[in-house]
Amino acid sequence: xxxxxxxxxxxxxxxxxxxxxxxxxxxxxxxxxxxxxxxxxxxxxxxxxxxxxxxxxxxxxxxxxxxxxxxxxxxxxxxxxxxxxxxxxxxxxxxxxxxxxxxxxxxxxxxxxxxxxxxxxxxxxxxxxxxxxxxxxxxxxxxxxxxxxxxxxxxxxxxxxxxxxxxxxxxxxxxxxxxxxxxxxxxxxxxxxxxxxxxxxxxxxxxxxxxxxxxxxxxxxxxxxxxxxxxxxxxxxxxxxxxxxxxxxxxxxxxxxxxxxxxxxxxxxxxxxxxxxx
Length: 278
Known about the structure:
2 domains; 23% helix
């Protein structure tokens, strides 16, 4: 009889209270573990977001800095009209060198200025534009189809420079022209098209492959495209500020970017000095 009692108690198992206690303990442990895992995931996600912010901003600033330092003197302009995208526009230099003889007012028109050709690895092609002594954006963003001014188109049959040595040649312009003024350093620039960086919502896009004659458009519809995405999550509506040159310093472009990720913001201030001596 005693043995039967012992066997019955051994087969009885856990009580309801014991099971509830075990469930409570396991729940507390699982909550702690899940909170720890979730905390680690949040840290990883925040780190990835910050890396993306830094990567986007670094790419955009380095790209803009490199392009602005090779911009045609006095070609930078910024559109900051209310209700329109904030756009930074400039003209990249393809090549530059010195000229020997050009037609300048009041001389007769000529279609073959004599110049020192640029480096051998910079071929000149028909349709490229030659610019001499630009002092204002209004003297650059014009139609090159006139006969008097500072910007004209090259014609066919542009000579190529020899591999070694300094070579002089007569460029071929699309029509007889004469420039408005001589450059004090007898320098000329070869350019192709304009470039614009525009703020569109939380994105910054780059437009190229167009030539804007006249007032700046924001964005440049004459580019014939939707632009190339350069950065996302940029929330400052007017990050581009242009400071004109003075007697004591060159012109300067101030970049005030503000990148947003979740509830965090990354503010970056960068200044690019632009050469203004034409």
